[in-house]
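Progress against Task 2.4 (sequence-to-structure conversion) is shown through the following example record, which the project officer requested during the mid-term review.
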Amino acid sequence: MGKDIRKRKGVGTLLDKAFFEQIAQNKAQTMYRVACGLLRHDADRQDAMQNALLKAWEKRHTLRDERLFTTWLIRILINECRNIARAGQRVIPMETLPETPAPAYDMTARDLVDRLPEKQRLCVILHYLEGWPVKEVAQALKVPQATVRGRLMQARKALKLELTKEEAAYET
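Structure tokens generated for the chain above:
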């Protein structure tokens, strides 16, 4: 996770604007996937990412251990996503709703993950999609490692149940 930061030596490397931009660009994919797990609208995801990067830049001097930069940045992003979700319960005008319901479609793995509760969804995204070890997921979410393992187990069970339902529906 923090390999790119460990390559540079010296204190205060994040104070360097060019280095901060490089790290931010390297983490953009991870940030977007986390934001996708928490927010439904692309504009909100982009806003959350931009706000998180701005806050990280403004508060970079408060980071005690630069090796934990990615965990710290993702924690800021999660908080920003939650703020946006709370503030912007989207209202859809009636005239924009379709007159006929959308046809049913087969669920993709991403659809199934999106249906998980937020706590499980974040663990799945960070651990399975981003490849973070359980320890780092626990640090980012500020929960014990056992809690992360439990949430991952619950998510696997829920996904297996949904896949079983999908298979049964497909076979009939």
